[in-house]
Write a structure and sequence with these properties.
Radius of gyration: 17 Å
Structural class: mainly alpha
Number of strands: 0
Shape: elongated
Order of helices and strands: HHHH
Length: 75
């Protein structure tokens, strides 16, 4: 099997450059805030809204993992 080196295009490089500038804590605290918002909506008997907002937590945390990987791989 031939070893092919991955080359990133300019858009990917630009995105990763900007992503590295965001502190990792931002993603964690955003996810916690979203959980609090979802709990508040649940307490206000807005079940569907609470479920909708609560589903944002996982993607935000995944973005945080991506952020951490980009920082570590480009360090």
């Amino acid at each position: 099997m031939k070893n092919v080196e991955n080359q990133e295009d300019a858009l990917t490089t630009a995105i990763e450059t900007q992503t590295q500038k965001v502190p990792s804590d931002v993603f964690l605290f955003t996810a916690i805030g979203i959980m609090a918002a979802s709990l508040s909506l649940k307490c206000l008997n807005r079940k569907n809204d609470a479920l909708f907002v609560g589903q944002w937590v996982a993607p935000i945390l995944l973005l945080g993992v991506y952020n951490k990987l980009v920082k570590n791989l480009n360090a």
